[in-house]
## 1
Amino acid sequence: RKEVEQDPGPFNVPEGATVAFNCTYSNSASQSFFWYRQDCRKEPKLLMSVYSSGNEDGRFTAQLNRASQYISLLIRDSKLSDSATYLCVVARSGGYNKLIFGAGTRLAVHP
Amino acid sequence: GAGVSQSPSNKVTEKGKDVELRCDPISGHTALYWYRQRLGQGLEFLIYFQGNSAPDKSGLPSDRFSAERTGESVSTLTIQRTQQEDSAVYLCASRGGVRNTEAFFGQGTRLTVV
């Protein structure tokens, strides 16, 4: 079993739709959580960190459920420019936290 | 520098040759990661350096792959006797030592083995 698992998609949605991505992790001692975005043929970049209480940044909302070892990302009012691969990232506990990346979920927003 | 720098940006090599890829992390970042990404695939962890600790080499796919880093400076990833399946983008990332900080990626080296 992979340490971080994501639905690979692709998710094909129309502009304006709300879409949700899920991610599960297997190491219960994981301490830090992130969502990264990767555009085609580009390097991954941080979209947002995920905090225990949940957090929102404009149209993006991230949630963490430690009991179920589950992270989610909700995108409201999808834009064409949201088309990308979304990577769930978990940092293991201890010291300086090695980062483990999920394989990513591909999102395609169409007119 | 302002960001993570990788060189070369593109490398075409003949099967069986050795290649060396370079990563200059953000100054002061103690953690450095190498990942491989094949076309249309996710990131595959290769190796992780943290300060002066022994590196985590658990992701290296074979003994043809090795990496070095001196202190908190430049890292090199070496692939010996390259094979066609080594063709991929090799991404380097660095991260500060404080928990919950983000990792910053370089633009990658696109390796093509012909």
## 2
Amino acid sequence: GAGVSQSPSNKVTEKGKDVELRCDPISGHTALYWYRQSLGQGLEFLIYFQGNSAPDKSGLPSDRFSAERTGGSVSTLTIQRTQQEDSAVYLCASSLAEWAGELFFGEGSRLTVL
Amino acid sequence: GNSVTQMEGPVTLSEEAFLTINCTYTATGYPSLFWYVQYPGEGLQLLLKATKADDKGSNKGFEATYRKETTSFHLEKGSVQVSDSAVYFCALHINTGTASKLTFGTGTRLQVTL
């Protein structure tokens, strides 16, 4: 596609439910990143994929968070047993190579946990 | 660890005023430095970058100079426009070979009025 596409754009869920957030990167981009943007907290790194492998998953806040990438393209971020503190905007970004000096971001998925 | 500190917003200016948004960093090694901008309803996009000390990045009338001696990368624009209203993020990157990610500041909201 023309840009990084994320879905859903908005998700409201109840505490304890599982949610899946999807990211479709720019075609041909091998690197993919997930960040979390919370009010007043800036952008918090979650995980980085190069192809289908994740050499850096150091930012995942707990074992309730997981992510996978298949076919070197689409990625899914899964949050199990959601908590209110998980409410945030989840941003996906892709890059042409492992480090090409620029990340291209999607518009994000806003998650609200009631 | 690596970190970025930005001045807190919001910053409110009249059109044609001079803009400075301060950014300082802490890093082990020699980072590349970036400013990203997030316009309302859009994803983050790269505004400018500098990869080594004394480099000046510039784009759309914005400038920032990589100052190693003060570990700073302040964003400036001589005459802001209403269309510059957005959130500005300072970021750094160090390629460690195994980890490749941007570390962001908390963002500074700029509001330009007529």
